[in-house]
Amino acid sequence: MELTGIAARASALTAVGDGLMALLTGLTVAGAAAVGANAVADGRLSGVALAVVVLTPLAAFEAVLGLPLAARQRQRVRRGAERVYEVLDAPAPVREPERPAETPGSAFPLRLEGLGARHPGAARPALDGVDLTLAEGRRIAVVGASGAGKTTLAHVLLRFLDTESGTYRLGDTPAAALDGDAVRRIVGLCAQDAHVFDSSVRENLLLARKDATEAEVRAALARARLLDWVDTLPQGLGTLVGEHGARLSGGQRQRLALARALLADFPVLVLDEPAEHLDLETADALTSDLLAATEGRTTLLITHRLAGLEGAVDEVVVLDQGRVVQRGDVATLLRTPGPLHRMWRQERATDALRGATGETPLSAAPAEDDGATARETVAAAR
Fold first, then answer.
1. What per-residue confidence (pLDDT) applies to 377?
2. Percentages of the chain per state (helix, strand, coil), in multiples of 5
3. What is 67-127 written as a DSSP string?
4. How far apart are CA 353 and CA 57, in angstroms?
5. pTM score over 0.90
6. DSSP H or E run through 326
7. Beta carbons within 8 Å of 132's beta carbon, 6+ residues apart
8. Is the pLDDT of residue 364 over 60?
9. Which residues, in sequence order, are CB contacts of 281 under 8 Å at separation 6+?
10. Cis previous bond, 109, omega within 30
């Protein structure tokens, strides 16, 4: 709504400016014609000269017709420059070491101990006392409500945000001792808002690895369950995807982003809410494919959905207000009263109200809760 209002005001100003310029031009031409006609009537001006008198204001105004547009563009450029300077003048979000340490031969285990992090200007820490260990090949899901600190954890892992307390190590090397780009060559991100460039499918993938062969590109697409669709396109890998991937569906954009991350072959892959903003059926199918595509790869999945996690991850970590409130394997936590179990019951009720099939997304759920969940669903529907 705010963007629509801004566009409407800009259009109104443009219309007013163009209208005033046309009115002023018309009045000037009419005035010149009236004066010229009187001069012709008095014999002081010939008919040919009258045409010149009438056309002269039109020619003169052509030279200044672009001034309103120039004024608007100047305002836009000025505001754009202000935003650029705000970014340039802002303090660096992370402190880069003066003499970066050498990249460790192995990034494992990736370990967080008592980690705390705070966004600039925030009153309370976004993460507080978080412990997490990612061994090679291990797959962990981090779940929690919006604002629990899940995305902040991803930012810390990629060194987009400094730690306030505790330690973050890659192997035996503190991440803070490494250059930020070196950390991001180890820890890769597939985010919910991964950018897709106005180029071809192939060029979007080669951003991850410029020297990738055609076979490697196709293999990455196959793992992301996108190859069959690409092969149906008229230009195949050379098909343009449009600005911000406008010619792709939301699921296709996320699969393309995953294929790019797989092609980059990061030792650690962070999937940050990859199915966000998709309908439930598409989101659950995409999450299932993402977990299948990353099988055997060290993966941290950040999600608010529990469907499909059972048997797909080694451990689930529940965050609440920046703290770890529960952790363990999915089946055990579902049999234990606590935050994860409550999240699962709420998810089932919400899915039922949205027209889901009613099937239990996680088979390990305790059967004795079926009646309670059904009663909650009926009550919510009323």
1. 31
2. 50, 15, 35
3. HHHHHHHHHHHHHHHHHHHHHHHSPPSS---SSPPPPPS---SEEEEEEEE--TT-SS-SE
4. 69
5. no
6. strand 323-328
7. 110, 111, 112, 115, 140, 153, 317, 324
8. no
9. none
10. yes
